[in-house]
Amino acid sequence: MGKCFALMIFLLSFLLLLVLQNLEVVNAVGCTGSFYNDNSTYVQNRDDMFSTLADKVIDNDGFYNASLGNSPNRVYAIVLCQRGYDQQDCFNCVLSATKGIKKDCPNRMNSYTWDKDVEDNVSCLVRSSIHSTFGNLELEPAVLYPSPDGIDPSTNMTLFEQEWDGMVNLTVQATTDAKNSSVLKYHGAIEAEFTEFENVYMLMQCTPDITSQDCNRCLRECVTLFKNQVWGRRGGEVNRPSCFFRWDFYTFHGAFGNVTRLPAPPAQEGSSATDKKGRSPRSWVTIAIFVVLTFINVVVSIGLIMFFARRRKSNNGINVDSEEHYESDGQHMLRFNLGMILTATNNFSSENKLGQGGFGTVHKGILPNGQEIAVKRLSKGSGQGDTEFKNEVSLLTRLQHRNLVKLLGFCSEEEEEILVYELVHNSSLDHFIFDEERRSLLSWELRFRIIEGIARGLLYLHEDSQLKIIHRDLKASNILLDADMNPKVADFGTARLFEAEETRAETRRIAGTRGYMAPEYLNHGKISAKSDVYSFGVMLLEMISGERNNSFEGEGLAAFAWKRWVEGKPETVIDPLLMKDPMNEIMKLIQIGLLCVQENAAKRPTMRLVIVWFGSETIIIPLPKAPAMSGSQCQSEDRTMSMSNDSTELSCR
């Protein structure tokens, strides 16, 4: 008996230890990763970076990410202030956060804290890491702060939980609604008047570098941790590296001066009474309503599916009345009706026109739910437009990456062929890098981030997606920039799908932009991932120089850069606006760009190797050889070329 009792005590102690480890209710700072010596280069780099963060975050509208030092001691940091912050409060909060990390994580590689200023007017995040976390959802470690006080035992917790869960859903929805174009876009604060309780306040915020889906997941996991571990406390807070969640019965963080105020569902008589199993009459009513509504929804859904199936058959698969889900090569996507598109774009009005391409126009639109979209309307009667349309629908439905433009759906009706994309607010890269005034907005740090993002998008296409795709028309006008200046590779009309084991192919239809096409592709129709690497190299040199490739008549930018490299004057390639930036890093990227445009495709690196070179200070990068010399340029950047057995015909468009 004694042994059994001792074993029981041991198991309970072990379980309690696991719970305490899970909660990580230790301090305001989450610390992970390897240990380093107090006098190491890494800690010096971290402290040097911390000394500038308070100023930098204010200069960058409340959100800033940066890195400092050389690998393996390079430090990456992200700093964020709560939306609506006062500059002095933000400054003080970041100073406090950096001090807290240095005190509580004096010798750990990775750390973060969601801190607040002395007056509790603003919250802020400071995060440091030995690897780049920008754009990645970071969930661990989680830090939980429950209120020391519990909710009154006489409270009807069934009703309270129902209303609390509803408030959570509303706050998550308000936080992840990406209509807000502000840098601090993921922020939601709600005050709700509960039926039988005092008002409840809830605040959520995510770092703006992650997607709205990742923000939703992060916040939901915060809520789940709180409910699973400390439900019944009078408020609390859960911190994760990518998001922050707090609720209480009083205002906090100055977040509730301009807040969404909502009433709770009306109380019903006897709502505080419970049956023998602890369920209130309201619970039984809710369950009954849920069951009835679920049954009705199932019946209606089956009826609608049968209705639209018959309608698709009678209309040759064209939906003329509403939007519907459609299967493209087994992939789930949305087919929009033409009426909705016309309404969204105000009948393709000139005021909503975003641009003109070789195969049609692009217009801005707003769907009935308020979502902004970019509508690509292909030219009627264009054989190439029809090919491009089918190609983009086929490919983009199966591609999902933060550095690829997202296809929301399509419309094929009344001779119209329309593609519906997410709206990318900052237009295309060429509107910045080749514009005398706007180019000054592209600091070297931002240019490098754009270059690296494009490289990661290409790596996904070449190696990491379920498909293997060669883009074939990579250039600055086909790179879109979102509200945070993150690059998204676009325009997959001429892309080529490879089989899993296929590494190269040949074609007689050459499609792309002269000056960006690899010589083996331009001259012999040979396609491989190295074709895209060549295009990337040209675009990389454009980003460094701020000049179009076709500005160098007769030779092209690659040949010009090579001559300056051989002469020992590569700095003459660099945009004068970058002369105060780190020359060694820029020179390294010129070298990588020249390696990407080697005439021999086998000598060009893969995109995976390019990304490794970007992040390493110790790897020896090979010296480049003479690039392929480009011929004369089309006056217009956009062109197509068709190749037959007898002749090659080039046409600019």
Automatic annotation (TrEMBL):
Keywords: ATP-binding, Glycoprotein, Kinase, Membrane, Nucleotide-binding, Phosphoprotein, Receptor, Repeat, Serine/threonine-protein kinase, Signal, Transferase, Transmembrane, Transmembrane helix
Main localisation: membrane
Membrane topology, as annotated: Single-pass membrane protein
Superkingdom: Eukaryota
Domain Protein kinase: 348-619
CC annotations in GO: plasma membrane
Transmembrane segment boundaries: 284-309
Gene Ontology terms, MF aspect: ATP binding; protein serine/threonine kinase activity
InterPro entries: GNK2, GNK2_sf, Kinase-like_dom_sf, Prot_kinase_dom, Protein_kinase_ATP_BS, Ser-Thr/Tyr_kinase_cat_dom, Ser/Thr_kinase_AS
Gene Ontology biological process terms in this record: response to abscisic acid
Region (Disordered) location: 630-653
Subcellular location: Membrane
Domain Gnk2-homologous, residue spans: 24-133, 146-252
Signal peptide residues on this chain, from the entry's feature table: 1-28
Binding site for ATP: K376
Keyword Secreted tagged: no
PANTHER family: CYSTEINE-RICH RECEPTOR-LIKE PROTEIN KINASE 39 (PTHR27002:SF987), RECEPTOR-LIKE SERINE/THREONINE-PROTEIN KINASE SD1-8 (PTHR27002)
Record's protein name: Cysteine-rich receptor-like protein kinase 39
